[in-house]
Amino acid sequence: MRRVQVFVPEDLERHRGNWEGDVNWAEMRVTVRLRDGRELDHGRSHARGWPEDVPVTLDDVAGKFRECADGVLANAQSDEAIAMVRELQRLDDVGELMAALRAG
What we know:
Elements: H1 10-13, E1 28-33, E2 39-44, H2 58-69, H3 75-86, H4 94-100
Antiparallel strand pairs: 1-2
């Protein structure tokens, strides 16, 4: 028996390819069936960071930025850009931030 089975429930299947209407692309459900037969279920209707859910923190955004910038910007550039964004209100010239975001 396969240990992992993936399927799309009928009520979510109708969303596939439908870009109009009230489609919620963040809808997800997962069920884990344990060896003893118990099932653990969890579902979400919104991705993390949506207004309806827990908002993302600046640390969350910085972590995502680091993941996306990895291999494009040097770590020091990423650190510098993040530090500037954290102090954006005090930044005299946004050109400094733009320079920090330029790939070397």
